[in-house]
Amino acid sequence: MAPVLPARGEVARDAANRAAMLEALAEIDGLLAKVTAGGGSDDPDKNARTVARHRGRGKLLPRERIGLLLDPGSPFLELSPLAGWGTDDPLGGGVVTGIGRVSGTECMVVANDPTVKGGSQGPTSVAKGLRAMEIARLNRLPLVSLTESGGADLPKQAEIFVPGGASFKNLTQLSALGIPTVTLVFGSSTAGGAYVPGMSDYVVLQKDAARVYLGGPPLVKMAIDEDADEEELGGAEMHARTSGLADYLARDERDALRIGREIVSHLRWRKQGPGPDRAPVAPRYDPEDLLDIASADIRQPFEAREVLARVLDGSEFEEFKPLYGSTLVTGWGHIGGYPVGVLANNGILFSEESQKGAQFIQLCNRMDVPIVFAQNITGFMVGTRYEQGGIIKDGAKLINAVSNSTVPHLTLMMGASYGAGNYGMSGRAYDPRFVFSWPNHRIAVMGPKQLAGVLTIVARQKAQSMGIEFDEAAFSPIRDAFEEQVESQSTALFATGRLWDDGIIDPRDTRTVLTLALSAVHSAPVSGAASYGVFRM
């Protein structure tokens, strides 16, 4: 393969871009530190007291449990750590999800954080857990649940009762697909939460700590007027000796985690996808440059090939159709030794780019090669000339190809993601296996100024149709407020808070994150599409 040649050679330093990116990363680091510290409230002192009380009971924090579960020194790809941002749910949702290696096997790990509302489940934690199960199913990853939860967050029961029921359905469907499910219970697992161990293939309960019952002593008293003892009702030893719910009885947390590792070890799990077809090679260009490349002003384009030069193995890229449809860069390379096809935006999508992208996606499917979509797109071209030229038909070809492609898609939001451009580049609605965002990412129907301008034009036309004069001065505050609203709802933090991605990443970590994601998707077979919808010619 020919090496990628960045457009400006060794990238020019851009102080404004770097400063803006570092400022955004500092904000994200602060939020991540808050989530990792535990407690779940906006009061640091209260959080510290909650965590101290938890530790005073001899308990570990969720990420400490995960650290002991995973193979020593192995990476953990945490997903959606800032889910819930901008909502009234706790930041992170009171649950940790991610992919890590347990006894040599890549697993999806889900861990309740009992320092956040006792590990109770709110809307964000339910959505985050469902996404983790979806990733486990699509990528054929064993699911390990580290459970300590008070059940539903009762004040929000109306928001979680219906969607939350899918958790139990998903557990048993994973088992039916032959994807192992393992649950380690360290504390309470009550009410609906009792079905997490109840529907898992393997169950480990911690002695003198785990409590698993459909109804706790207060509910039993109210329901049938029975004074029930906690251990007799749902204790770990009772379930190990009497009910049979527990397959293993652990002495303490570390023993439970040891048993969990042994269970995964005896699964003898094997990946069904192909492994890397060559040894990984570091890029020729420094990933540190990515801080300078990504535009602080989302309206300012940047060269996609410069990004690829700092992500692809050896900065090598076999570009496909380089002289045709130049605002969409397509071609083949490797990331972490895994072969990939790449579609990367270098500007707006015209008919040529749409046709080129559709053809390239078909070629990747014919070759059984995963596709990386690198989004920095304001949408498809509009205007009389382009409508008459068939932009709708051609854009539909690209969306058709994306929709029916069956090789794994990994989507990187490295800039703008507006309008149908989001769809044509495998946005969240098109079921990519993973979506990761840079902090400068913006997502909306269109840019805030454009949306506000459209609103103004529509209001002016409405006034004219009614035969009244349009009051520009009176409408100006409405337009400005709308633009500000769209701007605030277009940010990377807003998107990640609602699980529109699987996490915001430091641009410098892009290659590492994509490598871990590619390794995960190859746990399942990688097979291209055999058919597509009708292509309107």
Describe this structure in words.
- This protein is globular.
- The protein is built from 21 helices and 15 strands.
- Helix 4 runs parallel beside helix 5.
- It is an alpha/beta fold and 537 residues long.
- The strands form 2 sheets. Strands 1, 2, 3, 4, 5, 6, 7 and 8 form an 8-stranded mixed beta sheet that branches. Strands 9, 10, 11, 12, 13, 14 and 15 form a 7-stranded mixed beta sheet that branches.
- Helix content is 42%, strand content 17%.
- The model has no long low-confidence stretch (mean pLDDT 92).
Shape: globular
Structural class: alpha/beta
Question: What is the strand tally?
Answer: 15
Q: Kindly state the percentage of residues in helix.
A: 40-55%
Unreliable stretches: none
Round the Cα radius of gyration to an integer and report it: 25 Å
Span of the ends, CA to CA: 33 Å
Tell me the number of helical segments per DSSP (H or I, 4 or more residues long). 21
> How can the largest sheet be summarized?
8 strands, mixed
Binned strand content: 15-25%
Q: Compute the average pLDDT.
A: 92
